[in-house]
TrEMBL record, chain A:
Keywords: Coiled coil
Regions annotated as coiled coil: 76-103
The name this protein goes by in its record: Cyclin-dependent kinase 2-interacting protein
InterPro entries assigned to the protein according to its UniProt record, in alphabetical order: Cyclin-dep_Kinase_2_interact
From TrEMBL, chain B:
Pfam families noted in UniProt: AAA, AAA_lid_3
Alphabetized UniProt keyword annotations: ATP-binding, Nucleotide-binding
Record organism: Phoxinus phoxinus
Annotated protein name in UniProt: AAA+ ATPase domain-containing protein
Taxon lineage: Eukaryota, Metazoa, Chordata, Craniata, Vertebrata
InterPro entries to which the protein is assigned, alphabetical: AAA+_ATPase (IPR003593), AAA_ATPase_domain (IPR050168), AAA_lid_3 (IPR041569), ATPase_AAA_core (IPR003959), ATPase_AAA_CS (IPR003960), P-loop_NTPase (IPR027417)
Top-level taxon: Eukaryota
Positions of the AAA+ ATPase domain: 209-348, 474-646
Automatic annotation (TrEMBL), chain C:
InterPro entries: CA109-like
Name of the protein this chain belongs to: Uncharacterized protein
One Pfam family this sequence matches: CA109-like
GO CC, one annotated term: nucleus
Domain of life of the native organism: Eukaryota
């Protein structure tokens, strides 16, 4: 079973190397998809915050206009409409988060696959691992580590987004809403090192030319 | 000489304001040999500016529009411009001082802002764009002998200093001169500028310069103005605190406000000298009372803390101003806080003259105005009163002037204004009286009494040098006594009118009050005011009813004896209270002018030195009941008996009384004088009045003159108010 | 005066207005690119402000470790990148201004070299199709000055922006927009309009 291959020889890869290379491409694609979903979600979240603020100001003006029954009726109709709208947007955002969760589960699967590959190697070659790297320089366990790091950051991010999803429509504090929105948009747990890891992963597996 | 004769100066177009362009007609440009955009130096009355010559859009000659973008500081009116072509080399370097809005943000873009401009040494460039840098003061230009040049991309621009725009605006304002407070002004200036000028010396001496100063003086003497003036003069920032602005309703708000003001002042002090003026400090920091929770107490404590925290920050001075130093918390008046106390008193004669000169400086005065005389007449006036006076005089002049014509302010206007403006220290005071001025001639007879009065009242006031020369001390008090109705009051009025001094008059009715201690207080206050307005006369009419005699046992513990003791103390008390101190005008005022002016000044100085006292004039018709302590030398030492008029006097009185009555030729005043034995002056006046009324009654309202018979009839109705016993009594006391 | 000098001066002027027109387009494009960047900076400033005001420990976000620092870092990064892009645009503006400035000073130098043959009367004479030399020089000077001052003001504004002063950053888009002086722009447009016939004549 000759597994030592040189990158660039496409279609020649088999077994672990094949799997790792596919995973790297998957990482790339999943993250792109995540970013798209993030942008989409950010737009929805902004809408929700704006609706919430409108609702609040409407309610305040309602208090002011207690006397006019006609106006009040108008407002309650408005309120109903905006409530409905708000609900629709929340459902949309839920959808986005669900999709992100889906992506995360795929990532998790990749991580466990790569761990499996590592274990297999340890079984085959003992504690020291294989003599030559699968691609250029990385030992096999490094793939697992990179994936796991990436996975951890996205996992934390998804947890943050879930919290935001729950709280967003219910907060009346404008500053806090703003913090929710910017946390959604700027994804504080996905840092630059993550991007670097992904890029080096792609380099190592030959998706990017050296 | 200008080369723009017949050219009308118009304001610059809005579009041209910050382009440094001077628009002129093409003909003028060719005449001066200018090309498009030639640099020119335009000299005007107040200064100069550098422009570039451009033809007007409409090519019309005869107009000039000047952009003052680069001009001498403070240039605003453009009169008589003279255009001089400039030879402007390109500058290799220029050093500038920039004025920015916020000194925290300094940017390096001065060069780009100045590029393409012609600049001149000492000129201020208004950049006119919305950047941090608003103005640039050109300090030196490096272009050989020329003082002007063009800033190009290759010019090196050195910024030697950065200051805030506020700082510059402060410098620009030229203060109006203050009259009469030169010494206080100098001491203030010294205090603020010493630590700035000689920090090293002070440090070696181990001195920490005083940081606080308390200005004390009655309202209107110009405390606030003085501080403003000094701050302006030395270019210090002035932060003003008004008591009411600071106090807030919320607990702690006042302290917070005070802290904010101090912070502001501290920020200003970072840049340059700063004066923090706390006006009416007595309202802010009253004496702390027993109840420790009072908000004022906390405020005082806060102020003390803040003042102590200043430390030796250079160029930060706190000035408190008050007219009631007694009401201040004593903790404020110790060294380290308000270490210096400067008292500004009511201005003296010389000071008044110098104030008048300064307030009338801008006023066109006609040659008959004698400010010395006005100064003499305005006894008791403070700076604010004098400026009100000059304003009123100017208004009078305006009222008189024909429409359009402007008339110079003449002496007559001042006299009329004097009738409207009263000294503010006399307003709301007890004894101030607005009496009709009486001349000596309006009182008939009594020539020797008049002479005596002149000696003791008018002479010391008007010719002090003669008395000083002869070593005659001036009398402290004058007692006029004599039977009622014999013109005692009128005599005093005449004396007051002729000696130009403040006149206070008080009667028993004004003095006595149902409250314990009130009468004494009123009297003391009256004297305090009289001293503030010295030279002044305090006239106590019917003094016997006010004070009585201590010998009379019935009165021993009454109000009257209390009043008497106050009066005795006031008459020869140990000294003047510190607060009432007057500034010494000892320095010889520098007066430009001839010898005459000099002697006048000397005379005024002398007068000022001699006239610091309050003269007490009392009148009574019962000198016998007065306390003997009052009558001893040094108190009411000059006793003048005003006798009932004798025949000659009665004749004189009759002449005065009938001066306005048309008399029939058969009226013989000599006879009347013979017949009116024991008639007092008042009786005689009444007689004339009665006779005139009788004439009106009996001969109808068309009557043209009073005949002798009416006098005789009136004489029959009236009886003399004096009695021989009364005269006896007075004689007795005269001998006593 | 020689007509050859006038015609060569006219040639210079034509070229100057060409340069002005071309670079005005460059200037406006670069300026348009700045707008969204400025508003992005303003938005981020608002977000930073909100972050500063919110005590995360008291919110549902308390369980996320280091969220405050991470988010702050991300936002600062975003500011930096926007400022970097703005700096590029400022360079473009600078280039446009330099081009205009060079050309204008060249035409003024040409005029000054030939003042002895150009008297004032010749400089101020204008016709229906041809503005006077004086007018055109003035317009060019005005335009150059306008772009120079605009550049200084805009650059100064950007220099004041630091993440430490959020208020300045928040108000930056408004202040940036207020720097646009319609009067100055109009003068350039007017000048270009008025020389349009002159430009077409040969």
């Amino acid at each position: 079973m000759s597994e030592s291959t040189t990158p660039g020889k496409k279609g020649n890869l088999t077994g672990s190397a094949r799997k790792l290379k596919d995973n790297a491409a998957d990482w790339h694609n999943l993250i792109l998809k995540w970013e798209r979903l993030n942008d989409e979600g950010s737009t929805i979240a902004t809408k929700i915050v704006n609706l919430g603020l409108n609702k609040k100001s409407n309610m305040e003006s309602d208090v002011l206009m207690e006397g006019g029954s006609l106006a009040a009726g108008d407002h309650s109709k408005n309120l109903k409409q905006s409530n409905q709208e708000l609900e629709e947007e929340c459902v949309k955002l839920q959808d986005v988060v669900d999709k992100m969760a889906n992506i995360l589960s795929k990532m998790e699967k990749m991580v466990s696959d790569e761990r499996g590959i590592c274990e297999l190697e340890a079984f085959q070659y003992g504690e020291k691992g294989r003599a030559e790297p699968l691609f250029h320089t990385w030992p096999t366990h490094q793939f697992a580590e990179v994936s796991s790091k990436l996975y951890e950051s996205y996992k934390q991010e998804l947890a943050l987004k879930k919290t935001i999803l729950q709280e967003l429509a219910h907060t009346s504090n404008a500053d806090l809403s703003m913090v929710y929105l910017s946390s959604w948009l700027y994804q504080p747990y996905i840092d630059d090192s993550g991007k670097l890891l992904l890029e080096s992963l792609l380099l190592e597996t030959g998706h990017r030319p050296l | 000489m200008t080369n723009t004769e017949g050219v009308k100066v118009l304001p610059a177009d809005a579009a041209d304001t910050h382009t440094q362009r001077c628009r002129m007609g093409p003909a003028l440009m060719s005449r001066l040999g200018l090309r498009l955009g030639s640099p020119v130096l335009i000299r005007v009355l107040q200064g100069a500016c550098v422009c570039t010559a451009w033809p007007r859009r409409d090519l019309a000659d005869g107009f000039l529009q000047i952009s003052t973008q680069c001009s001498t500081p403070g240039l605003d009116t453009l009169i008589n411009p003279h255009i001089k072509p400039l030879k402007c080399p390109k500058l290799t370097s220029v050093s500038v001082k920039v004025f920015v809005r916020n000194p925290k943000h300094t940017s390096e873009s001065v060069h780009e802002l100045l590029e393409g401009l012609y600049v001149h040494e000492g000129h201020l460039v208004n950049l006119g764009v919305d950047t941090e840098i608003r103005f640039v003061l050109v300090e030196t230009v490096n272009s050989g002998s020329q003082k002007a040049g063009l800033v190009t991309a290759r010019t090196r621009v050195d910024v030697v200093a950065i200051q805030s725009v506020k700082h510059m605006e402060r410098r620009k304002v030229s203060g109006s001169t203050l009259g009469g407070v030169e010494d206080v002004c100098a001491s203030l200036k010294e205090m603020i500028t010493f630590p700035l000028r000689y920090p090293a010396v002070l440090r070696t001496l181990g001195l920490s310069c005083p940081r606080g100063l308390l200005l004390i003086g009655p309202p209107g003497v110009g405390k606030t103005l003085l501080v403003r003036h000094v701050a302006q003069d030395i270019g210090a920032a002035l932060v003003t605190v008004n008591g009411p602005d600071v106090t807030g309703s919320r607990p702690g708000e006042s302290e917070e406000n005070l802290r904010r003001v101090f912070d502001q002042a501290r920020a200003e002090a970072e840049e340059g000298p700063c004066v923090l003026l706390i006006d009416e400090i007595d309202s802010l920091c009253p004496r702390r009372t027993e109840s420790s929770g009072a908000p004022e107490n906390r405020l005082v404590a806060q102020l003390l803390t803040l003042m102590d925290a200043i430390g030796s920050r250079e160029g930060f001075v706190i000035i408190g101003a008050t007219n009631q130093p007694d009401a201040l918390d004593p903790a404020l008046r110790r060294p380290g806080r308000f270490d210096r106390e400067v008292i500004i008193g009511v201005p003296s004669l010389l000071q008044r003259r110098s104030i008048l000169t300064s307030v009338c400086r801008e006023m066109p005065l006609s040659p008959d105005v004698d400010l010395n005389a006005v100064a003499e007449m305005t006894c008791g006036f403070v700076g604010a009163d004098l400026s009100a006076l000059s304003r009123e005089a100017a208004l009078q002049a305006m009222r008189h002037a024909q429409a359009g014509a402007s008339e110079p302010v003449s002496m007559q206007h001042f006299m009329r204004a004097l009738r409207h403006v009263r000294p503010s220290c006399l307003r709301s005071s007890i004894g101030a009286t607005d009496f009709k001025r009486i001349s000596w001639e309006e009182i008939g007879g009594l020539e020797d009494v008049k002479l005596k009065l002149k000696q003791s009242i008018e002479w010391p006031m008007r010719f002090p040098e003669a008395l000083v020369r002869m070593g005659v001390p001036r009398p402290r008090g004058v007692l006029l006594y004599g039977p009622p109705g014999c013109a005692k009051t009128s005599l005093v009025k005449a004396a007051a009118s002729s000696s130009h001094c403040t006149f206070f008059s008080i009667s028993a009715a004004q003095l006595f009050s149902p409250y314990v201690g009130d009468s004494e207080k009123t009297l003391a206050q009256l004297f305090a005011q009289a001293r503030a307005c010295a030279p002044s006369i305090v006239f106590l009419d019917e003094i016997d009813s006010m004070v009585g005699s201590r010998a009379d046992s019935a009165l021993s513990h009454s109000v009257q004896s209390q009043v008497l003791s106050v009066l005795l103390t006031e008459l020869d008390g140990v000294g003047v209270r510190a607060v009432e101190r007057r500034s010494e005008g000892g320095r010889v005022a520098q007066v430009e002018g001839g010898e005459q002016e000099d002697t006048r000044t000397r005379q005024m100085e002398l007068q000022e030195v001699c006239n610091k006292d309050v003269l007490i004039v009392a009148a009574t018709n019962r000198a016998d009941v007065l306390d003997s302590a009052l009558l001893r030398p040094g108190r009411l030492d000059q006793m003048i008996y005003v006798p009932p008029p004798d025949r000659e006097a009665r004749l004189a009185v009759l002449h005065v009384c009938t001066a306005r009555v048309p008399l029939h030729p058969d009226v013989c005043l000599q006879d009347l004088a013979d017949l009116t034995e024991l008639f007092s002056g008042a009786d005689l006046e009444n007689l004339c009045k009665e006779a005139a009324l009788l004439a009106l009654r009996e001969e109808g309202l068309g009557v043209s003159c009073v005949r002798h018979e009416f006098f005789m009839k009136a004489l029959r109705i009236l009886s003399p108010s004096l009695s021989p016993e009364q005269l006896q009594q007075n004689f007795h006391s005269c001998l006593y | 005066m020689s007509s050859s000098v006038v015609s060569s001066l006219h040639q210079e002027l034509k070229q100057s207005f060409e340069v002005l027109r071309a670079n005005r387009a460059v200037w406006e494009r670069a300026l348009a690119d700045c707008e969204p960047l400025l508003s992005a900076i303003g938005n981020i400033a608002v977000q930073l402000q909100a972050l500063r005001h919110v005590q995360l420990a008291n919110t549902p976000l308390h369980s996320f470790p280091g969220l405050h620092e991470r988010l702050h870092y991300k936002l600062s990064l975003a500011v930096d990148s926007a400022l970097g892009k703005l700096a590029e645009n400022m360079d473009a503006l600078q280039r446009a201004r330099d081009a205009i400035g060079r050309q204008v000073s060249a035409v003024f130098q040409f005029y000054e070299r030939n003042t002895h043959t150009l008297d004032i009367a010749a400089c101020v004479s204008r016709s229906a199709v041809c503005p006077s030399v004086s007018d055109m020089l003035e317009w060019l000077q005005d335009s150059e000055r306008h772009y120079r001052l605009q550049l200084v003001q805009r650059r100064t504004l950007l220099q004041t922006l630091t993440p430490s002063d959020l208020v300045l950053m928040e108000t930056a888009p408004g202040r940036w927009a207020s720097l646009h002086t319609s009067a100055g722009e109009e003068r350039v447009t007017d000048a270009l309009c008025q020389v349009s016939f002159f430009m077409e004549t040969e």
